[in-house]
Design brief:
Elements lengths: L2 H49 L3 H10 L2 H5 L5 H8 L8 H6 L8 H11 L3 H10 L5 H5 L7 H5 L9 H10 L5 H9 L11 E2 L14 E2 L9 E3 L10 E3 H15 L6 E4 L4 H15 L1 H4 L16 E5 L12 H9 L5 E5 L4 H4 L4 E7 L2 H10 L3 H8 L2
Parallel strand pairs: 1-2
Antiparallel strand pairs: 3-4, 5-6, 6-8, 7-8
Helix pairs in contact: 2-4, 10-11
C-alpha cells in the first residue's frame, strides 16, 4: 500500500470519528438542555403549586408554555378560575392576572365580555369597584363607552338608565354630562302622558306626581283631615301632616296681618277628570295641559297640595299680594314649596302658578328654597 492511500484512509477514519463524536456531543447537549428544562418546569410547577394554583390550571399553563410568565406575578384567583373553567383566552392573560376575582358564577364571562367591548384593565377594575355586579349587564348593552368613568363618577347616576343617558347625550351634546343625567332622571327624555309609570309609594311625603308619574285611579289617602275653616273657603281636606303644617303657616301669617286661605285641596280622580275635561272643552287639549293635570296625574289627588288666595280674594293674582311675598320667603319653614315656579316651566311642564303650594316636609323644602330647585330637580339630585 503506498503512502498516499494510507493518508486517505487515515483522513476518512478521522472524519468518521469526529462525526460520531459530534453526534454524541450534540445528543449530550440536547439531553442536558431537556434535563435542565425539565428541572426548570418541575421547579416552576412546584412554585405554582405553592402559590395556590390548581392542578388543572398548571397543566394548561405547561401546555401554553407560560409557566415562567405567570410566576412573575402574585397568585391570581381570576386566572386560576379562568383556566380551570375552560373560559381562558390566552390573549387576555394580563386581564386575568390584574383583575381581582369576584365569587360570581359568570365572572370570567363578564370580564371577557368587557374586554371584548374594548375596556382596558383599569376601566374594568373601575367598573367593578363602582357598581353592583349584576348591573354590569347595563354597560354591556352598549358598545364601548369612552367616558364610562365620567358617567360612573356622577353621584346621582342610575346605571339602569345608562342607555337613556347615552341617547340623550348624543342628541344634546351641547349639555354637560351632569345636566344630561339630571334631565333624564327627571324623565325629560320621555313624552308627557305617554311614557309614564304608576307611582309605587303614593303615601310618601315626597311622592312625585307629574306628567310622567301617575297615581292609581282608585288611590285615596287614608289620613285626610279637614282644614280649619278659618283658613279655607269651604270644607277642604289635606293629609294630616300637611294639614297641620298649613294651619300653622296660615296662623303665623295671620299674626302679621296677612290672610292666606285654601280654595282647593284634595281632589278625587273623578273630580279632577271633570275639571280637566271642562278645561279641554273650553280651551282645547294643548292649552289645558299647560295649567291643568289630567286625572291621575294631579298633585291634588295626593292630599299634599293646596291652592291658596290672599287678601285680594283672587287666587290667579296671588303673586301681586303681600301674602305671596311672605310665602316665597317663609313657606319652607313649614315644609311647603311653590310647586310650579316661574323659572321652571320647562321642567315642571306647567305654567307658573303662584297659588299652588305643595307639602314636602321642612328639610326638603328648605333645601329646595336654598338651592332654587323645583321638586323634580330635587328628587333627581338625590337619586342614588
Amino acid at each position: 500500500m503506498n503512502k498516499k492511500k494510507v493518508i486517505i484512509i487515515i483522513i476518512v477514519i478521522s472524519f468518521i470519528i469526529l462525526s460520531i463524536s459530534g453526534i454524541l456531543l450534540f445528543d449530550y447537549i440536547n439531553n442536558k438542555e431537556d434535563t435542565n428544562k425539565s428541572n426548570t418546569n418541575i421547579s416552576n410547577v412546584e412554585s405554582l403549586q405553592k402559590l395556590g394554583y390548581s392542578k388543572e390550571s398548571i397543566e394548561q399553563l405547561e401546555k401554553l408554555d407560560i409557566l415562567d410568565k405567570v410566576l412573575k406575578n402574585e397568585y391570581s384567583k381570576t386566572l386560576d378560575v379562568a383556566l380551570s373553567s375552560n373560559k381562558f383566552k390566552s390573549e387576555y392573560l394580563d386581564l386575568y392576572l390584574n383583575v381581582e376575582y369576584l365569587d360570581k358564577e359568570d365572572f370570567i364571562d363578564k370580564i371577557n365580555a368587557l374586554n371584548d367591548k374594548g375596556y382596558t384593565i383599569e376601566e374594568i377594575n373601575f367598573i367593578l369597584s363602582k357598581i353592583n355586579y349584576e348591573d354590569i349587564t347595563y354597560i354591556l348593552e352598549s358598545n364601548y363607552i369612552e367616558n364610562i368613568k365620567d358617567y360612573l363618577n356622577i353621584e346621582n347616576m342610575d346605571i339602569q338608565k345608562l342607555r337613556r343617558y347615552i341617547d340623550y347625550y348624543n342628541n344634546n351634546s351641547s349639555k354637560d354630562l351632569r345636566s344630561v343625567i339630571n334631565y333624564v332622571n327627571m324623565d325629560m327624555d320621555k313624552t308627557p302622558y305617554v311614557d309614564y309609570k304608576t307611582v309605587e309609594d303614593p303615601n310618601n311625603i315626597l311622592v312625585l306626581v307629574n306628567k310622567y308619574n301617575k297615581l292609581a285611579d282608585d288611590y285615596k289617602p287614608d289620613d285626610l283631615e279637614r282644614i280649619n275653616t278659618n283658613y279655607s273657603v269651604r270644607n277642604l281636606y289635606l293629609r294630616k301632616e300637611a294639614k297641620e303644617a298649613f294651619e300653622a303657616l296660615c296662623r303665623d301669617a295671620s299674626s302679621l296681618g296677612l290672610s292666606i286661605r285654601a280654595i282647593s285641596s284634595y281632589r278625587t280622580f273623578d273630580y279632577q277628570k271633570g275639571l280637566y275635561d271642562n278645561y279641554v272643552s273650553v280651551n282645547g287639549v294643548e292649552e289645558a295641559d299647560t295649567y291643568s293635570a289630567r286625572p291621575g296625574f294631579s298633585e291634588h289627588e295626593t292630599g299634599l297640595a293646596t291652592d291658596v288666595m290672599g287678601s285680594n280674594g283672587n287666587y290667579t293674582r296671588f303673586a301681586e299680594t303681600n301674602e305671596y311675598t311672605w310665602v316665597v320667603n317663609n313657606a319652607h319653614n313649614y315644609g311647603f314649596i311653590i310647586r310650579y315656579p316661574k323659572d321652571k316651566e320647562n321642567i315642571t311642564k306647567y305654567m307658573f302658578e303662584s297659588w299652588h303650594l305643595r307639602y314636602v316636609g321642612k328639610d326638603a323644602a328648605t333645601y329646595m328654597y336654598e338651592n332654587n330647585l323645583c321638586l323634580e330637580e330635587y328628587l333627581a339630585s338625590k337619586l342614588k
